[in-house]
Amino acid sequence: MEKIRPGATIRVYEKVKEGEKTRTSMFEGIVIARKHGSEAGATFTVRRVSQGVGMEKVFPIHSPFIDKVEIVRTSKVRRAKLYYLRRESEKETRRKLKKELIEAEAVESQESASAKVSADKPAKEAKEETKE
Fold this sequence. Notes:
Oligomer: single chain
Order of helices and strands: EEEEEH
Number of domains: 2
CATH topology of the largest domain: SH3 type barrels
Strand content: 35-45%
Number of strands: 5
Strand order of the largest sheet: 4-3-2-1-5
Structural class: alpha+beta
Distance between the termini: 89 Å
Shape: elongated
Helix content: 25-40%
Largest sheet: 5 strands, antiparallel
Number of helices: 1
Radius of gyration: 27 Å
Low-confidence stretches: none
CATH architecture of the largest domain: Roll
């Protein structure tokens, strides 16, 4: 468990008890914090973004419910706690929402323009019929 460091992308296989049955659940994300060294109460925090929503889980290192931990990738970081990643994902979410809003407004303006053109056609046809 010593290789679990901030910046590492890991998969945590956790035993989950549902009623009488036990299943294994996987949680993959970036380690943003490790606390209390290697003592009995040591923990590590894993963060992932799923469908635009940030999720964090705190796992005790010596928990009997952790089946295994796979280290997918390690990254060199300059901080012990990577809490700034929370703000980064907020910025990214705001950027995506703004982009979607602009696209929706563009589509709406195109639809209103096409509706206006189609609304003008019957009026023109009616005028042509009265002329004849």
